[in-house]
Structures are given as C-alpha cells and as structure tokens.
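Q: Two folds, back to back.
A: First:
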Amino acid sequence: HKVDILGTQVSSIRSADLLAAFKSFIQQKQFIQVAITPANSILAAYKNKAVQNLYNISDYVLCDGVPVRWAAAFLNTPIVERITGLDLLPDLVAFAAKENFSLFLLGASPGVGERLKEVILQQYPNCNIVGIYVPPFMPVFDATENKKMVDAVNAAQADIVLVSLTAPKQDIWIAENLVKLDVHMAIGIGGAFEVAAGMIQRAPVWMQKSGLEWFYRFLQ
C-alpha cells in the first residue's frame, strides 16, 4: 500500500513485513530499489518531476520523516510505521547475518565504512560484508568515478548494496545505474552509517517522535 504525499507515493508497511519481502525478492534473484524519504526528499520530488518519477518507480519508498507521517495522517491516509535509515540499518544487518546475504557499503566519509564493518562484525561475526567504497565528494559523479563505483560494487557480487550519499542524491544515483548494478537490492540508507558506527549519537526518543531528530544532528 502506498500513500500520495505531494505526488510521491510513500509505502505504508511494517518493518517485519518489509524484511520478509526483501528475503523473497533476493531468493527469487529479483532486483529492487528502496528509497528512504525524509521531508526534504518529498519536497525535492515536488519541485523536480524527474526525481518524483524515480521515487514512484522504486519498489519501496519508506517514510523517514515525522512530518511525512503527519502529512499522511492529515490526509486521512495514515502510514502504519515510520521506517528511518537509522532504524532499518541495524535490522537489515541482523537480517543479512541470519539469512547469509552479503552486504556492500558504498559512500559516507573516509573511514566510516571500515569502522561500521568493525562494529557489525563485533555483533555479528558471520555477517558477510564483501566490500567498501568511498567516492570523492562531487555534486554529480563524472563518468570515470561513476564507473569506479559500479565496478567496485559488481566485483564484490553482493546481494545488497547500501548507498550513503544523502537523499535524494543516493536515490538518483541508484536509479541512473540500475541496469549496471549486479546486485539484488540497492538501498539509499542516508546518514545511518555514522550513527550505526557509533561516530554520531542518535537523538533521544522524545526528539525522534517530535520531529526534531534533524535538529539534534544539526547540533552535532
């Protein structure tokens, strides 16, 4: 089920059902794109129809921001659960370790991926992280760098690639390289790498529920 927020179709799904769907898609060797959309992504899509179209053809567009959920409730089409990148990443790691699905970490700042891998393996020694690649910061990747990114992902033969390039940039990159990627699932995970690696603290629960998580991260 999807809910229309300013023309962007946002998925209304619970985390447990989402992971069950992921398992089915990967086992069937189907490719899916997952976008995680805070309010700024919804607004970017509203202003740019090409961005909105890539969200609307994605398999799942998850409700990240509290304001997005508020908007859905205001429209009398409530979204059953807010699923942020910060919530999804630890669940996804546990899921991948349990089901023996391999992960590739793409993006974030230098050193973050390596630190996150250490943290993951401390908790899940059997988790199969098959590669890490950190592209240089560019508003738009040139052809040479883009090829390096795609080649790095494909050489690792991962089941799932987690892309941390900020939204909607990460979602645009996935959509533009969809046919080149030899993976089963690509997820634009946002800034979750730093938090999961313990390099940035997550906001207190009351701030998360009040729609102030962005402000807490801004302060840090």
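A: Second:
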Amino acid sequence: LFSIAAQSGVVSYTQEASELEGYLATPTKSGKMPAALIIHDWMGPSEYTSKKADEMAKLGYVSLAADIYGKGNRPKDAKEAGAFAGKYKGDRKLFRARLMAAYDYLKKQPNVDSKKIIVFGYCFGGTGALELARSGVDLAGVVSFHGGLDNPAPLDAKNIKGKVLVLHGAIDPYVPQKEIDAFQKEMNEAGIDYQFVSYSGAVHAFTNPKAGSDIKAGAAYNEAADKRSWVAFQSFLKEVIR
C-alpha cells in the first residue's frame, strides 16, 4: 500500500460557468500512475466518496471524488436528493457535461496515465459511471455499485471503451428486471465486454452502512454484499489495469 500525499484534499474545477468541488487523493509515488474517478450517490459528494478516493490512492491510483451537483449544492434530505438526481438523470447532456468536467480535470493531472483511467460510482453514481462510458471517452474500466441501468439512448453503448462491471443487489426494487434485461441487451448488441454480478438478499445502497438494515425500505446495508463486491472490484482492477 502507498501513503497519501499531503496535497490531497478539496479541489475546484469548472463546467462552463459552474464551479464544482471535488476531492483529489494522490499516492506518494513518482511517475505516471493509473487514475480512478469516483461518482457520488444521490446525496452528493460526502465523506464516503472522499474515503473511497483515499482508499484508491493507497492502492496506487490518483483518485478524484467528483462533484456533479456543483459547489454548495448539497441535498438536505432524501426528497431534495431525489430532485437533484432527477435533474441530471432527466438531462443526460448536462449529466455527461458534469461527468466530462471531472474526467478532464483528472486526466490533466501531470502524474496520470491517461490510458489507465477507471470510473466507478454508487447508486446515482453508478448510472453516472455508465453514462460517462457511453459518451465514448477513453476508459480502461467502468464499474457500477448498485447503480441505475436505464439508458434513453441504448445505441450509445457502442461508444463504450473499456470493460464493464455491474455489481447489483439481487432484490433491488429500484432496478426492475426489465431494466436489467434492457441493459444486458444493450451491452450484448454493442459487443461490450461486461460482467453482471447479483448479490442475493441485497437491495439498493448495499455498500453504504448509513443506509440502515431494513431491506423492506428498498435501500439497506448488506455486509456480505459489500465485502464481496469490493473483492470483485479489486479483481476487475487487476484485469483492466496492467
């Protein structure tokens, strides 16, 4: 494991006139390194995504926890989060623009190997990771943790560069079977190298301890699925980042 450089912390970047506030974590290592872009869930940037950036830096990745919503725009509750996330899911052009701003900022870091960038995200962020990939940018790997799979432009799947890993709660009520079927059809028809892993007994947000334990709520933490998905993720990294 690497230690994290002192310059890690909050960073500002822009998308047109909008200021965005992410978190950059850098390993104490010289030379070009692989990079990880992390997309937050519907509650926006948080300590959770910053810690994931730190974890990835310790694994040797220059890591940016992105900000899709913009500086100062942080939902206070689930109702606001639904409105924030809905805005971007309903406007994929804007969503991609915010994702691209983060991707470009990370790619321009002088110690980043631009051929070894991966993107991953949680819930809303899983949707975002897939949406960035569908835009056609150079990515070595794309990972969705309990993310939405819907895509208003299925033909865009042909633009995906890099391999795809979807880590899914088998009884997630927010991602119905028809959405899964449509996603797999989209991937198959585009000839994408993808893996789809379902975790039994897991619902939405299964990696987040703050989601509680009531699966009847539709979103709940599942320790086994959390651990298994992280192992699958690390195995995937070894495959796509050489």
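Q: And?
A: The longest helix spans residues 223-240.
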